[in-house]
Design a protein that fits this description.
Number of domains: 6
CATH topology of the largest domain: Porin
Radius of gyration: 37 Å
Number of helices: 12
Shape: elongated
Largest sheet: 16 strands, antiparallel
CATH class of the largest domain: Mainly Beta
Helix content: 10-25%
Structural class: alpha+beta
CATH architecture of the largest domain: Beta Barrel
Number of strands: 35
């Protein structure tokens, strides 16, 4: 036994002596051996280094920016490490790239100008470049790195790119979905298909991280509606026509219901919240008691908003869902909280807009109880202004006091010069020239001068809009205008109008606003096409008119340009007083637009109604103050094509109405195509002109369809309608085009 032990010890020392060597470094010019020693943790001066030691030295040296490349050789009595010292990068060039800009590539590279050139960074850079190209649909991109000598210790780094063919998604299909429609799901995911009729968008690139995001988005949509066991997968396939087809396979599973709802309120909140609870119970029943996260969130927001509006800050309402094996139990419960007071509000990031201008737009101020709803409302309000790009907020709470920081991303260039061509089917082609500044001296106030010309109107106006510091919900607008109108094709004369005006608008909340205004107009009618028409002669001459305008608007629609849900109600009252104005009259216009979005769909039904009534206070209501019908406000008929005529002179009417019922959809297209279609039926009439003996209400009706293209400059609308109920004197026009939505 002892003999074997001594043999092991003997051979160990022999092997140490045979395989232990020293190391020699070659290729050093800028660095010394001592510099190399500072990089590695092993003693490079030792004469008893083994292969494992050399591997560790190479690994540690390779991780240093000072070393570009190391080669290794083992000779009988020593190890040789040949070191290629790192050069400094002078320039980085990207060659042959077409679809990805140089600046986008260079800013993502690890290699930088004036940094050391390392193989490790180059390898990572190539991976970064390939990932950038993959996100843009280039699956077969090739990247080669080259080094070009610039000087003794500096090099140019060159990345040669071979992009090959970019690939996009041609078709997206959903398999197994019954609850959500294809178009609805298509509108919610990020991936987009490319089709022949797309004018203003491109399809998605082949990016599997986007597909994964979309899969999780679909799962989230289903779970929010109670499908807790939903499963979603996707595959990408090539069709026989070499199209890329993205399939989403959906197993919806069972949809769970809310079995019991419990409302646990404190006594001081119960009276305020009981009515809301009854509304929730009714809506839940209408939803067949199925779980809906959006419904719960809607009423949580309503509960807590009502608490705040009733000055209750020491409690809030939260919801809790419990699984009872079969279905769910839902509880709305009062949670006690210590009120937090706003200590201070810090404004940062603004270089032009004054602090007081930004503070005037906030619904909160120091000393008040902190409410996140009011903070979010303030930020939403700030983002509406054209001189604000974006807002970031942060809060710091200490001892029930909160410091709020509002960081402003500001639009520094708020002045614009505008020259544009305009067109609509009523007044034809025109030109618009304007100069404006949306943030004068950082005050938040705006001024603009505008000169516009079309077939009926030549107008210059100067508008100054002021936002009072003390009330962010008020706006004052001051106007000076000079206008020439050519009404020879309709009313039979020309007119010139000069005047000034003032209007005040008050926004009570996000839905309700009021307006009031006063204006003076010096009106001159001239250049009559004949002297025998009373309706023309009554407008010829000089008239001084004063007008008082009152308006109210209630708007719950979900989109300004293209509403698909909600309601818009407007009323406008104009009074030109007797004994003050030469043309004394009053005028009432009422608009009622209703949009009902169909469940789990982008399709909707709409019913739009308009009514107007006007009456002279001292004589006949002049045609310039009467209503006109046709064109954009009654499709299928020409501009001012409905109503009584005196020869070729349009008389209009003192009273009118229109009612349009329709169906809006993307059932041919999806929301991401930026093309929306409507089918509509319009009926209406205009009557009771002071220049005719007849006051009959002759109904007109038309049936049509329209396409709205949502573009960066706003909606472009094309419509085609055919009248099926009309008078012989009416002028018809089937096709209409305008910038703006069709309804």
């Amino acid at each position: 036994m002892f003999k074997n032990f001594f043999l092991v010890i003997f051979f160990y020392f022999i092997s140490q002596n045979l395989f232990s060597k020293s190391v020699i470094f070659e290729g050093l010019s800028k660095f010394s051996v001592d510099d190399i020693q500072s990089i590695t943790s092993l003693d490079i001066f030792s004469e008893n280094l083994e292969t494992n030691d050399i591997n560790k030295i190479i690994k540690e040296l390779s991780s240093s920016d000072l070393i570009y490349e190391i080669s290794y050789k083992e000779i009988d009595n020593f190890f040789t490490l040949t070191i290629n010292e790192a050069d400094i990068i002078e320039n980085i060039y990207i060659n042959n790239n077409v679809w990805v800009r140089d600046d986008l590539i260079i800013q993502n590279l690890l290699s930088k100008n004036n940094s050391f050139l390392t193989k490790n960074n180059i390898q990572k850079d190539i991976k970064i470049l390939k990932n950038i190209y993959k996100s843009k649909g280039f699956r077969d991109v090739s990247i080669i790195a080259k080094v070009e000598k610039y000087s003794l210790d500096r090099v140019n780094l060159i990345y040669e790119v071979e992009e090959n063919k970019q690939q996009k998604i041609n078709i997206i299909k959903f398999i197994g979905n019954n609850f959500f429609s294809n178009n609805y799901l298509n509108s919610k995911i990020n991936s987009q298909s490319i089709k022949f009729y797309n004018l203003f968008k491109s399809g998605s690139n082949l990016n599997f991280s986007t597909f994964e995001f979309d899969k999780n988005k679909i799962i989230s949509l289903y779970r929010d509606e109670g499908f807790v066991d939903v499963k979603v997968s996707y595959i990408l396939e090539k069709s026989s026509l070499n199209n890329n087809i993205l399939y989403f396979y959906i197993k919806e599973g069972k949809r769970i219901k809310i079995q019991n709802v419990d409302f646990k309120y404190k006594d001081d909140a119960a009276e305020i919240l009981n009515k809301i609870s009854s509304e929730f119970t009714k809506k839940l029943k209408n939803n067949n008691n199925y779980y809906s996260k959006s419904l719960i969130d809607e009423y949580l927001d309503l509960y807590n908003t009502n608490l705040v509006s009733n000055n209750i800050h020491n409690i809030y309402i939260d919801s809790f869902v419990n699984d009872n094996d079969q279905d769910l139990d839902l509880t709305f419960e009062t949670i006690k909280k210590d009120p937090i007071v706003i200590n201070k509000i810090n404004i940062s990031g603004n270089s032009i807009t004054k602090n007081q201008t930004i503070r005037s737009k906030l619904s909160i101020e120091p000393g008040e109880y902190f409410n996140n709803f009011l903070l979010e409302k303030s930020i939403k309000n700030l983002k509406r202004y054209p001189y604000i790009k974006d807002i970031n907020t942060s809060t710091k709470i200490d001892s029930q006091l909160v410091d709020i920081t509002i960081d402003v991303d500001e639009e520094t260039k708020t002045g614009n010069i505008l020259l544009a061509g305009t067109f609509n089917a009523d007044t034809g082609a025109g030109v618009n020239f304007g100069i404006e500044d949306k943030n004068i001296f950082g005050s938040g106030n705006s001024i603009n001068s505008n000169f516009s010309v079309n077939s009926e109107d030549l107008k210059f106006s100067l508008n100054f809009k002021q936002y009072p510091i003390l009330n962010p919900d008020l706006t004052n607008t001051y106007t000076i205008f000079n206008q020439d109108n050519d009404y020879t094709g309709s009313f039979g004369y020309k007119a010139s109008t000069r005047g000034i005006g003032y209007n005040i608008n008050f926004k009570q909340n996000e839905k309700l606003s009021y307006g009031a205004g006063l204006s003076y107009q010096a009106f001159k009618g001239h250049s009559a096409i004949n002297n025998t028409s009373t309706s023309i002669n009554d407008n010829i001459g000089n008239f001084d008119n004063y007008k008082l305008n009152l308006s109210a608007k209630y708007d719950t629609t979900n989109n300004y340009f293209y509403p698909t849900n909600g309601q818009l109600n407007k009323i406008n009252f104009t009074l030109s007083p007797e004994n003050i104005s030469d043309n004394a009259f009053y005028k009432v216009s009422i608009t009622n637009n209703n949009y009902l979005k169909l469940p789990k769909s982008e399709n909707y039904i709409f019913l739009n109604n308009n009514y107007g009534y006007a009456e002279s206070l001292n004589s006949k209501l002049k045609t310039i103050d009467a209503f006109g019908l046709g064109g954009l406000n009654f499709k299928g008929f020409d501009y001012k094509g409905i109503g009584p005529y005196d020869g070729n002179v349009y008389l209009g009417g003192n009273e009118y109405f229109t009612s349009t019922i329709g169906y809006g959809s993307s059932f041919i297209f999806d929301e991401k195509d930026n093309i929306n279609i409507k089918f509509f039926l319009t009926t209406g009439s205009i009557w009771n002109s002071d220049y005719t003996n007849s006051s009959d209400i002759d109904l007109r009706a038309s049936l049509g369809t329209s396409l709205d293209f949502i573009t960066p400059i706003g909606p472009l609308s094309f419509s085609y309608a055919e009248p099926f109920e009309k008078n012989n004197s009416d002028k018809t026009r089937s096709f209409n085009f305008s910038i703006g939505t069709s309804f």
